[in-house]
Fold:
Amino acid sequence: MLTNMENRQEPSQKEIADMTSIRQLRYFVDIAECGSFTGAAENLFIAQSALSRQIKELEQHLGTPLFERTARQPRLTPAGQAFYERARRLLVELDKAERLTREIGQGLRGSLRLNHSSTVPITGLLLERMGAYLRDNAEVSLEIAQQSSEAQLQDIAEGNLDIGLLRLPVLRQHDEVEIHPLFDEPLYLAVAAQHPRARAASVELAELSEERFISIPHGHRGGLSYQSAALCMQAGFFPRAAQVVSRKTTQLQLIQAGFGVALLPESMRALAHESVVFVPLADEGCSTSVALACARGCGEMARRFVEVMRGLDA
Structure:
């Protein structure tokens, strides 16, 4: 048995021709508001004969006259008055829909889904550029959440996320995803205030071989913990794990409680309690990179956001 959906047929050319067109609605409303065919034809930049023909076809389709043709000026019939009120509202809503669609297509309106690594706090330069973008794009909103760098790339590749803010390096590349380095920042040794190294002017990585690190790299993830371990290995040791480890912002609380130490970026100082001390590293090259990820060929709204975050809007 055929369902109603299966029984439904596409409209014929005749049926399409018999439908009221948007053009006819605009012509009709313009005549009603102008008060004359001559004035409406001038406003619409069309011949009066063409305008009259469109209105005649509309009246034939509706099966009733819309205007009383008088010697002085056309007047709406009762049916025409009822049709005018609804036609005008339809055109207003159509204009709104067109404007909304155009603004979304041009990246002027909508919502962007943005996730950031827990070691990429929305502070400093990121916050400044994000604020500048939102001030210039008042109809755009951001949905922000935390997510690991590798998971961000996966979600962007699958179309579930628009923008990612992450720490390099990342271990897995996706052909569908672009990664744009934003800036580098120095790494510090983060220790509790009561730690023996808290008062040091600086520290060398080689001195930390006996320290307990609360951040140990994951076998399938890159980011800050991976970079920290790589620097420690260059100094001749692999970081020893503390009794409690974390790759999230909770590591600040673990350091504060004295469970261990970590190599953290300068931007995380803004999140740290005053009882966590950031000691400069004496070794060269102790820095970390923040990057932005987005889909290749992303929409206009995302593309504009990327340009601002990269500092390309000047």
In short: The radius of gyration is 32 Å. The longest strand covers residues 177-192. The chain has eleven helices and eleven strands.
